[in-house]
Design a protein that fits this description.
Elements lengths: L3 H21 L4 H15 L3 H23 L4 E2 L5 H13 L12 H22 L2 E2 L4 H26 L3
Antiparallel strand pairs: 1-2
Length: 164
């Protein structure tokens, strides 16, 4: 277990390793993300608070699957389960390296969510782990709106729960 300030750095590194593993080696993403999730919990100074956040990953995973069902997003791998683990890593980051967002005005949280969400998914498109039949302008608009709402909602929920 690391002290909280050291763990923030570890959390950033773990999340980046998770994201790039999913984007660059999707055939091994599930195993790598599972191992990184275990590492997170081995090092985390807030294991119980972190475990309470994991159901939020189901929200993001469900929304991603809705976008896939609508045909707006195509996952170019045999399995989508790595997406659930990536969502686990994201919501855990909200309790550590992204915790500073909880104190920001909701408009700023929404703007950060919009920018971060679009860039993350656009990066996945560029690496080829995902694709989309949408025009770039449509893609940016849809992802910006849903990530603004989603990240603001997650931030609001976390503030109400008093986690972090």
């Amino acid at each position: 277990m690391l002290n909280p300030s050291t763990f923030i750095v570890a959390n950033v590194l773990i999340f980046q390793l998770a994201w790039f593993s999913a984007a660059l080696i999707p055939e091994y993403a599930f195993s790598i993300l599972a191992a990184l999730l275990l590492l997170h919990f081995l090092l985390s100074p807030q294991r119980i608070a972190d475990a309470k956040l994991l159901p939020l990953a189901l929200v993001g995973f469900t929304l991603d699957n809705l976008l896939i069902e609508f045909g707006w997003l195509v996952v170019n791998t045999e399995s989508r389960w790595w997406l659930l683990l990536l969502w686990c890593h994201f919501v855990l980051s909200c309790n550590h390296s992204l915790a500073f967002v909880l104190n920001m005005p909701r408009l700023m949280v929404g703007l950060l969510g919009a920018a971060g969400g679009v860039l993350s998914y656009y990066g996945a498109l560029q690496f080829g782990v995902m694709s989309s039949p949408l025009a770039l302008s449509e893609f940016v608009l849809i992802w910006a709106v849903w990530w603004a709402v989603l990240f603001t909602g997650i931030s609001y929920w976390l503030n109400r729960q008093g986690t972090s």
